[in-house]
């Protein structure tokens, strides 16, 4: 069987740190044929370092000159929508980095383009592929938590404003910690809850620490041009009766440097996911269940393996375009609620 011919759009951190090495680990069934970046020299350098035969200065040129089966989209959020639609129209399956897009309108267009193309579109929500999430999913499917009626989602850093890339630029990112790191934990929670539909969303954002010079544990950020929130708070109710609270911060005066957590509360049990621990009442006592064995895999490499499997075997990846639209609607509503001071009601 011929190899899956993959193209990479964007030659930055996530492409060179995650996508390229993980495709290369599967070189018996994957060939990285081309890479495109508007910073052409970067594309050429990464191509040379990884023995990728073609480098281009735009994805349009890449699609004109090489035949591809699948692409990874690893460019700033603002450019996801156009690159994804171009790739689908070029007949490629698409793994687009998270968040799906800048807003729900774009995510919806990407969903429709995927439906029309008949190709797969999936998103880089790699936490779903962590063993803790996959194991929790099995426990939940077997009724260990019962009905999940509440979730607590946290993606909080003490002083973790990225000192590189465009993560503090609202124009290119669509927002700050909510759309960048909060989206990972929100996606994991929604995935474990069966992706319920939102009903009411209330959000609040803060900009207290990002616009002033301060300690930067992830490098020195551009505090003079910091245009995103440094903290976002949310409360979401769902049409199935469940609720969820969320906190996401690049910087906050808290104890831990970096806390990524999803806690689920069901009527038969609860769970913290990172690390996995289950809380139950059984035989008139309260017990905690802590796995002593979890499969050893890494979310990033598992995500790429899963995408390749799905492309080769014609299976829709677990992160779907429809879910991309739902999560983006929630993020839009959180930002809109924060801007207006009013809760957003979904019909
Ligand atoms: N899954 C994760 O944990 C994770 C981690 C980091 C980044 N990301 C996501 O990956 C994406 C990229 O982030 P990054 O950290 O690699 O950024 P980066 O700034 O390191 O790299 C982005 C690259 O895209 C190039 N680029 C910009 N516009 C382009 C265009 N229109 N066509 C081609 N190339 C273009 C830039 O020149 C740059 O080389 C973002 O959406 C981000 O949210 C995901």
Summing up helix and strand content along with how strands pair, one would put the structural category as alpha/beta
| Spatial order of strands in the largest sheet | 14-13-12-11-7-10-9-8-15
- CATH topology label of the largest domain: Dihydrodipicolinate Reductase, domain 2
Number of helices: 10
Measured distance between first and last alpha carbons: 49 Å
Residue fraction in strands = 15-25%
In this entry the ligands are: nicotinamide-adenine-dinucleotide
> Can you tell me the number of structural domains?
2
Roughly what is the average pLDDT, rounded to an integer? 97
What's the total number of strands? Answer: 15
Helix content: 25-40%
Gross morphology: globular
Largest β-sheet summary: 9 strands, mixed
Highest-level CATH class of the largest domain: Alpha Beta
Which residues sit in consecutive blocks of at least 5 with pLDDT less than 50?
none
Element order: H for helix, E for strand: EHEHEHEHEHEHEHHEEEEEEEHHE
Rg, Å, rounded: 20 Å
Find the CATH superfamily of the largest domain. Dihydrodipicolinate Reductase, domain 2
What does this structure look like?
By secondary structure, this protein is of the alpha/beta class. It has two domains: 4-127, 3-Layer(aba) Sandwich (Rossmann fold); 130-300 and 328-345, Dihydrodipicolinate Reductase, domain 2 (2-Layer Sandwich). 34% of the residues lie in helices and 25% in strands. Strands 14-13-12-11-7-10-9-8-15 form a nine-stranded mixed sheet. Strands 3-2-1-4-5-6 form a six-stranded parallel sheet, with helices on both faces. A hairpin with a 2-residue loop joins β13 and β14. The site of nicotinamide-adenine-dinucleotide has 25 residues, from α1.
